[in-house]
Here is the input.
Amino acid sequence: MKLPMHDAAARDQQLPEDVSHRVQLPRRAPEAPLRQVIRRLLMALIVLVLTVLIVWVDRDEYHDNADNAVDFLDCVYYATVTLSTTGYGDIVPYGDTARLLNILLITPLRVLFLIILVGTTLEVLTERTREQWRLNRWRTALRDHTVIVGFGTKGRSAVQTLRATGAGRDRIVIVDPSPKVIDSAVAEGFAGVLGDATRSDVLLRAEVQRARQIIIATQRDDTAVLVSLTARQLNKKATIVAAVREEENAPLLRQSGADSVITSASAAGRLLGLSVNSPSASTVMEDLIQQGSGLDLIERPVVKAEVGKSVRDTGDLVVSVLRGHRLLAYDDPAASPLQHADRLITIVRAMPDEDRAELGRPAAQGLPGSGVKPMRRADEKDRVIRRADEQDLGD
Here is the structure.
């Protein structure tokens, strides 16, 4: 197996064993530390003022060992030493009402005051409990999602394509060994799993066993092979797509369980060669693989109205027909007539969501949530142009 040179970024991403098992879910931006301190000080001040008022209202039932009289300063002093649990004993409640108020009101206020003082520790514990609850709920609800291993240039491009085709942020999980990369993914609204994806326990934290799609976009080809082997062992039914740098490593990826392998270096080289001979053709190819704008290349099932028809009789510009495990070209005689279980690879035109309802054609109804509009086939356009020319000549 031919391996690329060790990437410095890949070496920097290796983590110790004890920090490679962490799942991060998207969350709100944290409150500024200064604002948190000010908020807690205000809460403590409110509790202190409330305690002073309670003692002041019932001051006749308190006894001061110094002068037997309790004034406002004594009330503030008593509230302070009481809330802080210092309790010197020089001012004490002797009446039944004062003692009852101490039991029912001042004692809970004392507890609340202590909670505010140790709020940082309690907040950490509360945050951990809340985060664990969110994590358990997330794992329970996660089904048929997409796991993306590697959030570099290839991984980000894959995410953009998935988002353009209607995938929600909550249906995408990012796995990467770099803490900075995971923090970036979480900041963008995706769930992130920090760790080495060649380990089964890390993939299990991404719920890969219940995923529908797995995209492997690692830095190294050997890492991609190991990830593919591990993912296929955990999930026999998921669609696994992997990217490799060297074309001769692609068969190893397929043998390790990948359904589709993209050779990034060779694909870029082909586009470069195509751009030299035909810059416009390379622009069209770039448009086709960029979902959500211009022309899109999509796969869709055959709708009921298209069963039994020829490929040329569909409303879309069909490129290929997927029948079982066979990929038939549009001009292959075996491609027609279309069968119920066939899937069509078509070229469509992207369109805004609000314009989708205006389509009354069967092909459009077969694309729920795709955000694309069927293209009119070239021969159909030619007929329209010829009819217009004939009308102009007749006039």
In short: The radius of gyration is 34 Å.
